[in-house]
Design a protein that fits this description.
disordered N terminus; 26% helix; ten-stranded antiparallel β-sheet; 292 residues
């Protein structure tokens, strides 16, 4: 879970851009702000696909689906508090215990503060989410009558960690553009720190963001993330056995966000990451969309 906290911290330190008044003309800046009222809510469908490819063969696939009712629990002159109610969790996996746990989880909720513009202002969500999911695991095993192995439990804990990472990523995706100003067609480089590997390392990266269009009150923002190849190669070397050759490393990291400007609600968000290390490809795809 420590790696998830680091990843969540990365989301919160995106370099702020100059916030300019919203204009109709495409040559001027558009600000993506929240315009919520108390007790307003939006139902979202969330999905995640994680896969590993060895050469031409897909060796592992895991899918997660859930629904999230995102509501404005509180509104004041200082900002908002958003609440997420998670329900209808399902998982596609070959691990029976993980499927049982997903069926057991009925619903759970978490909340956090945001600014008047809609940007996140709190930093303790990873710890609270960790405690929440640990509680769901404990409740499940308290009523579970079957026998389990250590390996099977560890597989379930990996699903728990994956769900936590997915939810933190979804929260970050939802709030990534609030309070920031963009000009249609202009590419904005945003330097960030990104988690890499399973030891909590961080490398420098740049997120290139572009306001693709702003028509009929709907803004479409696209992004591409480029990690520092030299830093990644250094970490790869450190993990190799003495004398082993450095594997070929490539990454593709693309994102998209669609926002309804007058209401301030995100209509759709996605992020697709694929990393190639030697003959292996590791990918994950996250999507958020308003439930129709």
């Amino acid at each position: 879970m420590e790696n998830l906290r680091r990843l969540y911290g990365v989301v919160l330190v995106l370099t702020a851009l100059l916030c300019l008044p919203c204009r109709a003309a495409e040559s001027e800046a558009v600000v993506l702000n929240a315009h919520w009222v108390r007790h307003e809510y939006q139902p979202y469908c969330l999905s995640r696909l994680v896969y590993t490819i060895d050469g031409r063969d897909t060796v592992s696939v895991e899918r997660l689906w859930l629904r999230a009712d995102v509501s404005v629990a509180d509104s004041s002159s200082r900002g908002y508090r958003l609440s997420w109610r998670i329900h209808h969790l399902s998982v596609e996996t070959d691990h029976y215990l993980s499927r049982q746990w997903a069926d057991f989880v009925d619903h759970f909720e978490f909340d956090y503060p945001v600014s008047r513009q809609g940007a996140m202002t709190g930093g303790d969500l990873p710890k609270r989410l960790e405690a929440l999911l640990n509680g769901e695991i404990d409740r499940f095993f308290a009523q579970y009558k079957g026998k389990t192995t250590l390996e099977s439990r560890e597989r379930l804990y990996r699903l728990r960690d994956g769900l936590a990472e997915f939810l933190l990523s979804a929260v970050g995706q939802l709030h990534q553009a609030y309070g920031l100003g963009y000009v249609v067609g202009e590419v904005v480089p945003v330097p960030v720190k990104m988690a890499y590997g399973d030891r909590g390392q961080e490398v420098d990266a740049v997120v290139y963001k572009k306001l693709e269009s702003c028509k009929d009150g709907v803004a479409t923002l696209v992004s591409s993330t480029v990690m520092d190849t030299a830093q990644v190669n250094r970490l790869l070397r450190q993990a190799l056995e003495p004398g082993a050759s450095l594997p070929v490393w490539q990454q593709e990291d693309l994102g998209a966000l669609v926002m309804h400007l007058s209401s301030g609600w995100v209509l759709y968000s996605s992020r697709r990451r694929e990393v190639r290390e030697g003959r292996y490809i590791y990918g994950d795809e996250n999507e958020i969309s308003i439930k129709q």
